[in-house]
Design goal:
3 copies of one chain form a homotrimer.
Chain A: H1 3-12, H2 18-22, E1 31-35, H3 39-50, E2 54-59, E3 74-77, H4 78-83, E4 87-90, H5 104-107, E5 111-114, H6 128-135, E6 140-144, H7 150-155, E7 163-168, H8 171-183, E8 187-190, H9 197-202, H10 212-241, H11 254-283, H12 292-299, H13 301-320, H14 326-341, H15 350-376, H16 379-384, H17 387-413, H18 430-449, H19 451-463, H20 469-478
Parallel strand pairs in A: 1-2, 1-4, 2-3, 4-5, 5-6, 7-8
Antiparallel strand pairs in A: 6-7
Chain lengths: 480, 480, 480
């Protein structure tokens, strides 16, 4: 074997070296095997062919499955196919895995890639990949590619999910699979041992797990305030004045519930950070874990904030269509008519103009910052930000947004806080209730940035001898 | 050769091993060669130097092109330069490729990377890379990097397009080029043999190929409805009442065309999925390809939906500025004045209030979901969604959006459907015309989710023995 | 050593081969060493373990730091730990680097990865990595991973920044570090020699460096126009008519400043491209560098444009809430009342309706294009565009946006340009001032696309013999 030959051979086999002992390599390309000729198997085979691999399909009836098989590949029986490659993709359903048992000898030492998925969580007692490993103990099972659809396998990863997760016991087997993934244009991430397989198999079945809690909170708050305001506004008017103003449910009531829920959720988004800071101050150290509930709360802050933005967006739309409403136009005409008929003079009130305009202006600025926060939480935008930039926007601008929106709500109340007619049936209006939480958050935050606590905080930082910049960043994240 | 020496050597030569036979390697870095000292060549050379390669430029006049050449590189004549590296980037225009013919001997076995582009499609009978290969048959031509600008080559891939496409006959040559691309920070994707080169060369010249059909549809629909409404609203008023209300073209007419086109395009976006489901039910199998027109239609659904969102956005803006318009303010004053002068009393109509407010509320909710659909179709957002999440949003929420927008339009018509005065010149108003298609889509979808068809669909799934989760995903994509 | 053994060994050692001579490798995984058991060190160790590495922590007190150390790793004294791996991550603060000096012998030939960051820029005379290299001259120092937080190290790169920058003197050492980064799921980019370390260390400390100049410009323009309009509108009214209309600051004034600043910044975004084109025409060549100020200006065009979009967004919101304002509703009532009381007849003016509606319509179309430009400048969207598509949108649609917005402003002025009452205290209104710059830009652009200049431009292109498509793209970028 000359040096020239050896080096050619080496560059050609991408960390799949053990294969060379098993099969004489074709002159140009490395061969991989795909068991199963369904949509998934065929799509995968096509993609492998395009990436320069030789593809051998393993099929129960190798002679009858010809028409749809990608051109350039070979179809053999399972046993024959198993011999032709070191790497075997198992693109059949878990229910049919038993056909592999009699092949145990041929599969010995091979890398089996389990691509299967289930139709629902906990369908089987153990993960498909672990089941496969138990059937063929001599092979090295790697779980992977299952998060991709046949579609994205066929079309390549250009606009679908690039990220592929794999797991398995053998480091070498995983490296072989990762090399193939890289050549197919995916970026593979090793998630650990085969025990992680269940998690990977559950991944395609998950439906917004991180959004669930925030969505429950949003739904609960909306329902609670909807009924509270329904009673206070519409049923109260019906009982005391006998007027049917139920049409107000559609716009007026919705436009009260939305800003209330938005403001509460925005403060729920910043409350855990403040709580964490105080906990650290109280404990005198930042190196103890937070309680679990606080941890979980902090992990769904992004979702809380985005839902709050959604409600704020609805509030803006509901507010902007006010002058188009029939009721509003009717009232305006009625007011003008009454001014004329009663021959009143109208007086312009500068204070009302000031407070009204300030209220609107604060709302506009608050909403603009809100949108800015939303844009920077888009994955592609937050990825180009340095950590300091991200925390500047999410912490400084976030608290500023909360401040502006709270001030906007206070100005809405304006001089109604002290008037007793505001408190129908002795209940405060919705916007007063929703001011409690943001006021508390802002007060606590104010306490944290006063000189005394600030010094304490700094002392804390200096005290901890190991605190590097990274740990500050970590802390920063925690107390965002 | 000691083990230490061998391992150093190995880690240094990244799958470019054949080079070692040709040239005594420099102690620290591998050398690559760049032919051409224009903007592109220099940018590429600079980037290669930064990535730790040794760079040798090949130039016609090696001694006169000194000042702009990146510091640290070498400039030689073509023949001498060709000898110094295994990999040669051809950064000259196709018109000057003939200078390579006399170098055939020096180029034998070398990897030539063709980076060229053309000024327009079909400028030459064959692809530049294929032409290059025909000129230097002894070399291994790889097409690649041509989708990058000199700018992004120089600045690195941090905020430009990371993806680089390559193609070529030799797997080893492609691997060598991919290794370089990876070290420069790009992620290279092997697209196949040299016959793909024309496609890669056409890529930088393409101008929204997937948007073309949806844009034609949008333009056609807009023009058709514009003229239809122009005749019905403005020309009709001129003929029958002699009034010139042409100023309404700018806002009123635009605000009728936009929502009509938006709603039709949204239903065009969901129609193919429904058709595909019925086709599968009719055929009794999901393993036959759809007809070509249906395939093409399904592939431009995203673009149809985004254009529909654009028109909906315009509709929202046009609606929100209504109360600012001179005409509207004039009418409001006139109405109030006539109430006073004719001493009429105004009566508040709760039904009108209910229908008007519901109409507005449905519009707001529909538009919010519309925006949500738009956000989730941003590449960075759809990438972090699991397939189930993506299909939940695009299918469930998508049909809900269509339902809300259709209901919004029906409520707009409200009690005008049966009034004969609505049908000027015996033509229905635009919003009635545009209701046909979404109503059909929603009815068909309703049929699909009724128990009987649902069972049929399920039977279909169970019947097909090979149906894995992936194939369901595939199906799911098809019938989104 | 049989072939089987050799190949196994090879696939297992990822370009870290020199390690094999130093330590007998564990049967399954490669060992790396982490000095420091703080948050950062522990997070990194955990991630390394998950990726299949063996991890040995080096600690001052190996026996007392047990509880928080990730399960599966080993804790040794520094000297012992240094012997167990070829790659050593230094996860301690720069202040404690001196403990490495006595270990010089054990660290000889090892790769030391400096992960440290500083609390502020220029905290120390030299970069931390250079300081480390001077302390341990026998080791090969590589700077890297410092842009990551402990958080994203622990959680993996799925939704944080994937990109990792490294630099160092030795190519082999950098390759070893890059291999680890790749296995951890990051994508590493080699930025050059150790002299770049300071730049990398400053990166996490930077706060929107590219946004600074555009933000200064926006703040300056806003302040200037605010005071100009304050004097012209509010103080003028107070002096000449004694009226206090200061409440107009909150909405009316803000709604004048926003569109003015937006339009000026949009034209500032397109001015440098036009200037560059004229400079190239004047020079007769496109191969000379632009002056520095023009270069810097061109590099912040994206930021200028996005800030302009922000101001336009505020302008839209401020405009849409106009009919809700107390002042506006008061005025409307007053107008109607005066019509009645003075028994005037109102006459509908078609010209006013035309100009008003056109003004609004142009504004809406301009803003929609503005938003489209904003969306396409999102990193994830611009990444999927080909260069021609990106330049089509940013150049063609960009200039169209500028044209629409300028026409919108001209129509706002309409017939007031020639009325002397517009010029209070002999000063022109703000919107006239802000029309100067966009008019100039549009005129210059018009000149550039007239046949004569166009031919000149083309001649320029043909003259330059080396101009490839890439260079045209480069030029295209410059003169966008």
């Amino acid at each position: 074997m000359t040096g020239q030959e050896r080096s050619e051979e080496k560059s050609e086999c991408v960390s799949l070296s053990p294969m060379r002992e098993a099969v004489p390599a074709p002159p140009e390309c490395e061969r991989v095997c795909v068991f199963g000729t369904g949509d998934l198997g065929r799509s995968l085979g096509l993609r492998l062919l395009q990436a320069g691999y030789g593809v051998v399909f393993g099929s129960r009836r190798p002679h009858s499955s010809s028409s749809l098989i990608p051109h350039g590949s070979q179809v053999l029986g399972h046993a024959a196919a198993a011999q032709s490659g070191h790497l075997i993709f198992i693109a059949v359903q878990r229910e049919h895995y038993d056909f592999l048992v009699p092949l145990a000898n041929q599969l010995k030492g091979k890398v089996l890639v389990d691509l299967s998925n289930n139709l629902r969580k906990n369908q089987y007692p153990e993960a498909n990949a672990e089941y496969l490993q138990s059937l063929v103990p001599g092979a090295e099972v790697v779980k992977g590619f299952n998060t991709l659809s046949a579609w994205s396998l066929q079309k390549g990863p250009s606009d679908a999910n690039r990220q592929v997760y794999i797991c398995g016991e053998s480091v070498q087997a995983k490296q072989a699979v990762m090399a193939v993934a890289t050549k197919l244009g995916f970026s593979a991430l090793d998630r650990g041992f085969l025990s992680v397989a269940r998690e990977l198999e559950d991944f395609p079945l998950q439906l917004f797990p991180q959004w669930r809690l925030p969505l429950y909170i949003a739904t609960g708050l909306s329902a609670a305030f909807f009924f509270y305001l329904l009673i206070r506004d519409i049923i109260y008017a019906y009982f005391t004045q006998g007027k049917d103003i139920s049409f107000r449910i559609m716009v007026s009531l919705a436009n009260k519930v939305c800003p209330i829920v938005s403001l509460i959720m925005l403060s729920l988004c910043y409350l855990p950070g403040v709580l964490a800071s105080f906990l650290q101050l109280y404990r005198g150290t930042k190196y103890r874990r937070f309680p679990d509930w606080l941890d979980r709360w902090m992990l769904c802050r992004k979702q809380l904030g985005l839902l709050a933005l959604g409600f704020a967006f609805l509030h803006v739309l509901y507010t902007l269509i006010i002058p188009i409403r029939y009721y509003v136009r009717f009232k305006a005409t009625e007011r003008t008519v009454s001014v004329i008929r009663e021959n009143r003079t109208t007086e312009f009130d500068t204070t009302t103009a000031w407070s009204g305009d300030s209220y609107l202006s604060l709302g506009i600025l608050g909403f603009s910052l809100y949108v800015l926060l939303g844009i920077t939480s888009l994955p592609s935008v937050s990825n180009v930000l340095s950590w300091r930039e991200f925390s500047f926007i999410q912490s400084k601008l976030g608290h500023l947004t909360l401040l502006l929106c709270t001030a906007h709500t206070y100005l809405y109340g304006w001089n109604k806080f002290l008037s007793s007619s505001t408190y129908k049936w002795c209940t405060p209006p919705g916007y007063m209730l929703c001011l409690v939480l943001p006021s508390v958050v802002l007060l606590l935050k104010l306490l944290l940035i006063t000189p005394y606590t600030h010094t304490q905080n700094n002392t804390l930082s200096v005290m901890t001898a190991l605190s590097s910049r990274h740990e500050l960043l970590f802390l920063c994240y925690c107390t965002l």
